[in-house]
Task: inverse folding
């Protein structure tokens, strides 16, 4: 609680002092996303002040969406950066990754042979076909911005040796490592509720809303060469789109 | 884009596949990848026939097959226009009236007006929405539910400034499509819609209206609609049932031949 500073000798109201000091602690990174704040009672007792002041301070911060109250659990910091992107440029995150230090790219799962009906269907694979899966998480300031599951049919991507060293993101892998040219990709957007594993990987609560994007990647020969499922934490992702009248 | 529609429809003369089928598949894939989108006018059969150096009847056969498969249709002026779209992306990135989108899904559309009233908004709200704060602060508010075959699909609330739509609160019944109404009565046409799309958990009250459980994930879209003079004419927010997105995607028979194989195989 040492980030809260109260000076009873100055005229600034106590509640504002509490709110300001918590705000400052969030700004300088002392308090991070999902950190729990002391209860109102704890603050009252530590500084011998009325609980109205503490409540007002917390209410102010809640209104500013810097913290949130979860019933039965406590008050938590919510200063997670929103990822705001034009609807059809969300994949630029991948490209940004290689040039900027803001995003960290981390492969979390390599799976040689997956059998998933929806994936097989999207890639038009036969049950006997083989397909690789690569899951990765892109983070910013240690908070996940996107979870990405990519499926590569074996008939288009056979060279998976030393994949750990080679994989620097989806587009790089398809175009530079494997020599395909992406003609276009077709994405479908929807909203789903997070499963336990998705919640864990995206640092949100299970059942929280996720923006789910499915993408078919088509090469110059009009073949669907890869299928991608991207998951964005709903509360921290805005897609912007400008639509012109037909 | 319209100028080179012709160039995008291609055939392979060396292929043994009939030209009708090649034309059909070529257009179909252009529609599916949304190069040709909803209401795009296709080239006239004569034009395309001349361009591809084929018989008009060949092109006509291909077009008729596409009508049969519900990818295109003929409009009142006998143009061949794209009728296919996926609900998913259409609510997002095409400016199609929700009402038409539901029709194109093969569902019977209807609108239920849940609330309509005139509100006087506080200045900070007016500023945050982006309206002109020096004007009349009264806004016509409508909250409406769009249904397809009587099932809720989208909840949409709109704020229309009375300084642009004087008297709308008296005349607008509530269950008529809004775009058509303002076009007919005020000669105002939406030109650009600026949207922020999020995935959100439904609060209890909205979930109930949409026949969903509380916390079900839903697509939320905040829309600012501008007319030709770049004047903000409508501020709206919608919640859309997502099972429809999946449904549209999975049940569409076309999905099975989503990306047609190249012809020579």
Result:
């Amino acid at each position: 609680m040492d980030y809260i500073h109260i000076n009873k000798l100055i005229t600034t109201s106590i509640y504002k002092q509490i709110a300001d000091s918590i705000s400052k602690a969030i700004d300088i990174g002392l308090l991070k996303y999902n950190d729990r704040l002391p209860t109102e009672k704890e603050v009252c007792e530590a500084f011998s002040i009325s609980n109205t002041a503490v409540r007002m301070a917390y209410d102010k911060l809640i209104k500013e969406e810097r913290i949130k109250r979860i019933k039965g659990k406590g008050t938590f910091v919510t200063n997670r950066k929103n990822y705001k992107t034009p609807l059809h440029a969300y994949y630029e995150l991948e490209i940004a990754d290689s040039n900027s230090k803001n995003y960290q790219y981390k492969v979390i799962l390599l799976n040689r042979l997956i059998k998933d009906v929806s994936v097989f269907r999207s890639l038009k694979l036969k049950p006997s076909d083989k397909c690789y899966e690569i899951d990765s998480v892109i983070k910013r300031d240690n908070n996940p911005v996107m979870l990405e599951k990519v499926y590569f049919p074996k008939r288009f991507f056979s060279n998976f040796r030393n994949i750990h060293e080679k994989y620097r993101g989806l587009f790089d892998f398809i175009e530079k490592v494997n020599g395909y040219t992406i003609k276009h990709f077709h994405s479908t957007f929807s909203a789903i509720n997070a499963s336990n594993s998705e919640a864990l990987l995206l640092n949100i609560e299970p059942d929280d809303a996720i923006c789910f994007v499915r993408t078919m990647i088509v090469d110059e020969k009009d073949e669907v060469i890869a299928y991608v499922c991207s998951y964005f934490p709903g509360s921290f992702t805005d897609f912007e789109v400008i639509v012109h009248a037909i | 884009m319209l100028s080179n529609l012709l160039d995008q429809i291609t055939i392979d003369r060396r292929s043994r596949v009939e030209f009708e089928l090649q034309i059909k598949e070529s257009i179909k894939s252009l529609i599916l990848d949304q190069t040709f989108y909803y209401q795009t006018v296709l080239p006239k059969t004569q034009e395309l026939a001349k361009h591809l150096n084929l018989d008009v009847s060949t092109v006509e056969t291909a077009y008729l097959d596409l009508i049969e498969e519900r990818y295109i249709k003929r409009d009142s002026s006998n143009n061949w226009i794209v009728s296919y779209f996926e609900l998913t992306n259409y609510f997002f990135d095409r400016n199609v009236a929700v009402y038409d989108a539901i029709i194109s899904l093969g569902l019977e559309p209807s609108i239920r007006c849940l609330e309509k009233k005139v509100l006087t908004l506080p200045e900070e709200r007016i500023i945050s929405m982006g309206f002109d704060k020096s004007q009349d602060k009264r806004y016509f508010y409508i909250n409406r539910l769009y249904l397809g075959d009587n099932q809720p699909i989208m909840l949409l609330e709109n704020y229309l400034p009375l300084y642009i739509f004087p008297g709308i609160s008296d005349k607008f019944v509530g269950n008529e499509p809004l775009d058509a109404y303002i076009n007919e009565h005020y000669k105002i046409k939406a030109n650009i819609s600026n949207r922020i799309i999020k995935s959100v958990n439904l609060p209890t009250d909205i979930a109930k209206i949409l026949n969903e459980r509380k916390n079900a994930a839903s697509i939320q879209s905040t829309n600012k609609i501008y007319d030709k003079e770049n004047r903000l004419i409508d501020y709206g927010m919608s919640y859309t049932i997502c099972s429809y997105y999946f449904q549209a995607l999975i049940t569409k028979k076309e999905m099975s031949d989503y990306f047609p194989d190249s012809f020579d195989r």
User: Anything to note?
Assistant: Chain A touches chain B at residues 87-88, 122, 124, 184, 186-193, 207-212, 216, 218, 221-224, 232, 234-235, 237-246 (CB under 8 Å). The mean pLDDT of chain A is 83. The longest helix of chain A spans residues 14-27.
